[in-house]
């Protein structure tokens, strides 16, 4: 039977370490600050924002929440981002996605100062990821790397298949694993015969948003399966992209949904915010880049 990777426990352990880093920053008079901007009333976005703010409270990060109505003018939000870029008590700025249709998402993300871009979506940080000098690794794939590290799963020279090629999960995931010297293959909705790729994976990361996409016959015996997908079924159940029960007897490790990758995402947002505060606060343990932590 596979080992079930307990993302809740790993996140809890990491948050203890983060709390200690915040305490040491506070001793030096630096209170890490995260600004969260939300536009509109998408219930899922509101829930995510609430969870992020609660997590900040838990480790001692000061959060600043800014709510805009669905019909907000993009200029108002851009002006706020400009002001937050200049504030010394704000070390991270996050704009909850998706945004209403009147917004050009790229323009909003590029308005965030690259040294406060804790989601890692600014072009500067995406470029950093490509050349292997990341300042802010995007939170979900960063969480996956930390889970793999925690489980002692080697990456060098292993075959990794990433299913999903979004800018938020799949692409940065592939780049981070390539940086770790894995041999990486990226599949997406237009990939023909997905199984011929997935069957080769020593480590399979799935982030497609398709329940039951990965079934046992598509996976090699003893593979590691990291399920990033979150899908709500008509009966209300929350499931990932992989057939969890079917895969259990075949694979070596698997993440459950919920309780796998999800809790790590918010934890890495906290880590990115604290890293930013450390860089700004002249603390002894200054990281030149988050890549040092990743390696
Ligand atoms: P997205 O819709 O932007 O991208 C999905 C990707 O999967 C695309 O590249 C698409 O081509 C690919 N895809 C879709 N169907 C496919 C198929 N049948 N075969 C192969 N590839 C297919 O989604 P996203 O934002 O990248 O999120 C992916 C999933 O991960 C969603 O379920 C989302 O809810 C979840 N997610 C979880 C977390 C977390 O913290 N656990 C964070 C972000 C996203």
Structure description:
The protein is of the alpha/beta class. Helix content is 42%, strand content 15%. The strands form 3 sheets. It has a 6-stranded parallel beta sheet. It has a 3-stranded parallel beta sheet with strand order 3-2-4, with helices on both faces. Helix 2 crosses helix 10, helix 6 (139-150) crosses helix 7 and helix 6 crosses helix 10. The longest helix is centred in the first third of the chain and has 21 residues, at 7-27. The protein is globular and about 55 Å long. Mean pLDDT is 95; it is low at 282-289. Bound molecules: nicotinamide-adenine-dinucleotide (NAD). Residues 140, 163-166, 168-170, 187-189, 191, 194, 207-210, 213, 228-231, 261-262, 265 line the site of nicotinamide-adenine-dinucleotide.
Topology:
Elements: E1 3-4, H1 7-27, E2 33-39, H2 43-59, E3 62-68, H3 74-86, E4 92-95, H4 105-111, H5 123-131, H6 139-150, E5 159-163, H7 170-179, E6 183-187, H8 194-198, E7 203-206, E8 224-227, E9 231-232, E10 238-239, H9 244-247, E11 253-254, H10 262-281, H11 290-294
Parallel strand pairs: 1-11, 2-3, 2-4, 5-6, 5-7, 7-8, 8-11
Antiparallel strand pairs: 9-10
Helix pairs in contact: 1-10, 2-10, 6-7, 6-10
This protein binds nicotinamide-adenine-dinucleotide (NAD).
């Amino acid at each position: 039977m596979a080992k079930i990777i307990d993302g809740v426990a790993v996140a809890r352990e990491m948050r203890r370490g983060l709390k200690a880093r915040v305490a040491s920053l506070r001793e030096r008079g630096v209170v890490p600050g995260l600004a969260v901007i939300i536009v509109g009333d998408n219930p899922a976005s509101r829930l995510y924002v609430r969870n992020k703010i609660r997590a900040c409270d838990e480790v001692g990060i000061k959060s600043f929440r800014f709510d805009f109505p669905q019909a907000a003018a993009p200029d108002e939000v851009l002006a706020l981002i400009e002001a937050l870029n200049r504030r010394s008590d704000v070390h991270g700025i996050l704009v909850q996605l998706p945004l209403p249709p009147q917004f050009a998402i790229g323009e909003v993300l590029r308005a965030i100062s690259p040294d406060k871009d804790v989601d890692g979506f600014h072009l500067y940080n995406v470029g950093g990821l490509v050349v292997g000098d990341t300042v802010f690794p995007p939170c979900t794939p960063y969480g996956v790397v930390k889970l793999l590290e925690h489980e002692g799963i080697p990456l060098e020279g292993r075959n990794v298949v990433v299913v999903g090629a979004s800018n938020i999960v799949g692409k940065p995931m592939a780049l981070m694993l390539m940086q770790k010297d894995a041999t990486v293959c990226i599949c997406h909705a237009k990939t023909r015969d997905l199984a011929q790729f997935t069957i080769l994976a020593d480590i399979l990361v799935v982030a497609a948003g398709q329940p039951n996409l990965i079934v046992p016959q598509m996976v090699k015996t003893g593979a590691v399966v990291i399920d990033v997908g979150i899908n709500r079924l008509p009966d209300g159940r929350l499931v990932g992209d992989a057939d969890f029960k079917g895969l259990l007897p075949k694979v070596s490790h698997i993440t459950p949904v919920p309780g796998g990758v999800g809790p790590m995402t918010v934890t890495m947002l906290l880590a990115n915010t604290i890293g930013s505060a450390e860089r700004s606060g002249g603390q002894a343990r200054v990281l030149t880049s988050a890549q040092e932590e990743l390696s």
